[in-house]
UniProtKB/TrEMBL annotation:
Pfam families: BPD_transp_2. This is ABC transporter permease. It is a multi-pass membrane protein. Its main location: membrane. InterPro entries: ABC_transp_permease. Keywords: Cell membrane, Membrane, Transmembrane, Transmembrane helix. The chain crosses the membrane at residues 6-26, 33-54, 60-82, 89-110, 141-158, 188-207, 213-232, 239-257, 263-283. It is found in: Cell membrane.
Length: 306
């Protein structure tokens, strides 16, 4: 029973990284922008957050540094693809490669650094509930924050005027422009907010989830978060559920290893990525369904008056 509680708790923690990044990318794509640079942004944010945490001892400042790093990189990406009309896919890949190399260079002095003892969070009273208590009520506040973020984003997209405008920009930027909305500024704001959330995910990974800095430590989570948006058909609640699904698969490999399952560790390490490929293959078998849910202008440039 205790092992099940630990597995559920680890799944929620692992899924939080994917959920926050996935929700950030969802905001991008709802505005019609595809950002393939999530991996690079998360890596730069991870080292920025870790470095600040080491120097200041403040997790709050570390999260702010990670969000700032992600937002700055997203701002550069947005300026290139929205104002200069560079190819979104090529620019995103370039950002990912830049982030990988830059984080490795900047992070070299921090590979031997360690953070102090992490504060243990728990909700008094609820934590004593059998099974559910240790599984659900001993989590870092960011875990609950990711859940609230999904709810807030769903409300924003489907219950507010601003959310309707964002979705309109993603569906038909020409129509939104004709109605007087500043399409490029809306898209840039969506890209920066999405980048800040990817940065928050990277900082959470290095400051709370691990907590340490290792070159390339994001280990494909940015790509999985990107796949989550398609898996979730661009809906926040499904992004959250998908993040926990992939988080569970990630934790399953460690659980199987601890149980002494006689499977090469390399095959177990492959599980999250194999699961991602399988899910995308299954989804791609119904392109009509994807097309019905995908923002119509996704990946397409827009030039006012063009």
């Amino acid at each position: 029973m205790n092992e099940i509680a630990l597995l559920i708790a680890a799944t929620l923690s692992a899924g939080t990284v994917l959920a926050i990044a996935g929700l950030g990318l969802l905001i991008n794509e709802r505005a019609g922008i595809v950002n393939l640079g999530a991996e690079g942004m998360m890596l730069v944010a991870a080292i920025a957050g870790f470095a600040v945490a080491v120097r200041t001892g403040s997790d709050g400042l570390a999260f702010m540094a990670g969000m700032g790093a992600g937002a700055v990189l997203a701002l550069v990406f947005g300026w290139l693809v929205i104002w200069l009309n560079t190819n979104q896919y090529a620019t995103g890949l370039a950002l990912s490669l830049f982030g990988t190399g830059f984080s490795a260079f900047v992070g070299a002095p921090f590979t031997q650094e360690k953070l102090g003892d992490r504060f243990k969070f728990e909700i008094p009273g609820l934590v004593d509930i059998p099974l559910l208590g240790p599984a659900l009520f001993k989590q870092h506040p960011m875990v609950y924050g990711a859940m609230l973020l999904a709810v807030a984003l769903a409300w924003f997209l489907y219950r507010t005027r601003a959310g309707l405008v964002l979705r309109a920009v993603g569906e038909s930027p020409e129509s939104a422009h004709a109605l007087g909305y500043p399409v490029r500024r809306i898209r840039l704001l969506a890209v920066v907010v999405g980048g800040a959330l990817c940065g928050l995910a990277g900082a959470y990974l290095s400051v709370i989830y691990t907590p340490l800095w290792v070159e390339g430590m994001v280990s494909g989570r940015g790509w999985i978060a990107l796949a989550l948006t398609t898996f979730a058909t661009w809906r926040p609640a499904r992004v959250l559920l998908g993040a926990y699904l992939f988080g569970g698969v990630t934790m399953l490999q460690f659980h199987l290893q601890s149980e002494g399952v006689d499977i090469p560790s390399q095959f177990l390490t492959m599980l999250p990525y194999v699961a991602t490929i399988v899910v995308l293959v299954l989804i791609s078998r119904n392109p009509t369904w994807i097309k019905m849910n995908m923002p119509a202008s996704l990946g397409k440039p827009f030039t006012p008056g063009g």
